[in-house]
Write a structure and sequence with these properties.
single chain, 250 residues, alpha/beta, Undecaprenyl pyrophosphate synthetase, 6-stranded parallel beta sheet, 7 helices, 6 strands, 40% helix, binds farnesyl diphosphate, Isoprenyl transferase, magnesium, UPP_synth-like_sf, transferase activity
């Protein structure tokens, strides 16, 4: 993970693009395992290389002025993997933050977590909560780590909370709006993603941000996450900028 982090870059192909650069990009970082297996390496090596890509892509997002980057780091379904692999993936946030938190701080990155943090190992939770607290005043890129995240679980939990409030007359059923419901989600207060990138060749959502992706533009690539580069990222952003979003209108 010895990669130079942020440059002092002040210009580049996507700097100062104004309105149409996506404000919020969400990424399903798929393909670590296959990348490693192709090279005869362990799946753990693939996840470690995946962290190097995270570093490059966070830097690229800062450089092109993206406001929010949400990374699908560990899903509620990933517990089905062998314990050794689960432990490896869940140790990645701590390793990443131990090495890069000072650089993230000096680049004004604000770290947030979405997902059910309670069932994560203590070392993951502690590292992430520390980083969230330490960066809470920063006003640069918001980096959301989706950890033990599953959209159906999020929606069900939100509905339960909302029903409680309806029952306690804190909300009116008649006036209930989409905006009201959104406040019960992990992503409360965040804008919905403008662009979803999925690497690794699969074309599915895998229980990621089902509510929030309602009008998001999708970009799929066969490139495996460890091979995903700043150039690919900029390509996806550029492709997004050519699109016309109509939100069901004309
Ligand atoms: C999917 O690839 C990837 C994951 C389940 C884990 C992603 C996690 C990282 C890249 C580490 C992120 C760390 C930080 C700090 C954000 P896969 O293993 O399912 O790949 P495969 O489909 O080739 O088997």
């Amino acid at each position: 993970m010895n990669i130079p982090f942020f440059s002092n870059k002040t210009s580049g192909p996507l700097m100062d693009q104004g309105e149409s650069t996506p404000e919020h990009i969400a990424i399903i970082m798929d393909g670590n395992g296959r990348w490693a297996e192709k090279l005869g390496m362990s799946r753990a090596a693939g996840h470690k290389e995946g962290v190097s890509t995270v570093v490059k892509i966070v830097k690229a997002a800062v450089d092109c002025n993206v406001k929010v980057l949400t990374l699908y780091t560990f899903s509620t379904e990933n517990w089905k993997r062998p314990k050794k692999e689960v432990d490896t993936i869940l140790s990645m946030p701590k390793e990443f933050l131990q090495e890069y938190l000072p650089t993230l701080i000096s680049n004004h990155v604000r770290i947030q977590a979405i997902g059910d943090m309670e069932n994560l190992p203590f070392y993951t939770r502690e590292a992430v909560q520390y980083a969230v607290a330490r960066t809470s005043e920063n006003n640069g890129l918001q980096l959301n780590l989706a950890l033990n995240y599953g959209s159906r679980h999020e929606l069900l939990t939100a509905m339960k909370e909302m029903f409680k409030d309806l029952n306690d007359d804190k909300l009116s059923l008649r006036q209930l709006s989409e905006k009201d419901f959104s406040k019960y989600l992990y992503t409360a207060g965040m804008t919905d993603p403008d662009l979803l990138i999925r690497t690794g060749g699969e074309k599915r959502l895998s229980n990621f941000l089902l509510w929030q992706l309602a009008y998001t533009e999708f970009w799929f690539t066969d490139v495996l996450w460890p091979d995903f580069s700043e150039g690919e990222f900029l390509h996806a952003v550029e492709d997004y900028r050519q699109r016309k979003r109509r939100y069901g209108g004309l």
